[in-house]
Amino acid sequence: MHSPVALVKCRSEGMNLTLEAELESGATIIIRQNYPGKDPKEQAWKSCKFDSEVFVLSYLKENTHIPVPELHAVVRGNDTNFVVMNKVPGVMLVNAFGLFSTAVKVQMRL
Length: 110
Prior knowledge:
- The protein has a single domain (5-108), classed as 2-Layer Sandwich (Phosphorylase Kinase, domain 1).
- β2 and β3 (28-34) form a beta hairpin.
- The longest helix has 24 residues, at 40-63.
- By secondary structure, the chain is an alpha+beta fold.
- The chain has three helices and five strands, in the order βββαββαα.
- The N and C termini lie far apart (36 Å).
- A five-stranded antiparallel β-sheet has the order 1-2-3-5-4, with helices on one face.
- InterPro entries: Kinase-like_dom_sf (IPR011009).
């Protein structure tokens, strides 16, 4: 991951700031930052959610064959957290779901 950044795209500015960076080496990484909470209760919830996401990704990587991103850096701060991970190749289900037939969607039981 020690390669200069060639291009950065903003992927989301909702609950988290999500950036996709293409490196000169050809690798693609994702940088996510959660925004600070409006009050201590919301901040505690956001920190807990962040920790849970990091734990789940780590657990899946170590205990299953499900493709998950490799975590390159996890930074916890007082009011915001960052995670840097590689981008898993493929199409996200949310982007492909509309292409499936009704029968396939029913089989998925979403």
